[in-house]
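Quick sanity check, Succinate dehydrogenase subunit D:
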Amino acid sequence: MATTIDSPRAPHTVRRSRGVNWEKWGWIYMRASGVVLLILIFGHLFVNLWLGDGIKAIDFAFVGGKWSDPFWQVWDCVMLWLAMIHGGNGMRTIVNDYATRALTRKILLAGILVAVVAEIVLGTLVIFTFDPCPAGSPADLLPSFCPVN
C-alpha cells in the first residue's frame, strides 16, 4: 500500500539553490528569540510582581523610576524588539501558509511589516524619551519623586 503526501499548501514558495535561505534563518530566529524572550519576560514579571509590593505598586511612578535606569531601558527595549519581530515573523508564516492569492499575500505582508515597524519605532521612542518630570509642569501634577523647581 503506497501513501502519497500532498504538496504543501504554500505553492508560491520556491526552493532556491543559491542565495540566502530566509526561511531557514527565520526558523532559527524563532527558536533563539523564543528562548531569550522566555528569560526576558520571566525576569520582567519577577522584578515587577514578586520583588516589590506586587501589582498594586505598578503605577506611573514605578515605571518612571524603572525607566530612569539605563539597564531597564535596554532590557525593555530588547524585549520589545524581540517580541515584535518574533510575532511579525509568526504572522508572516501564517499568511504564507493560508493566503492563496499573490496580491492578498503581498497586502497582508505589507500590513504586518508596517505594524511591526510602527510598534518598534513608537515603543523605542517611548522607552528612551520618557520623562516623568517634564520641565515647566505644575508641581501639583508631578509625581512625588520629582524635584520641585
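Posting the structure with no commentary besides this: The CA atoms of residues 40 and 75 lie 7 Å apart.
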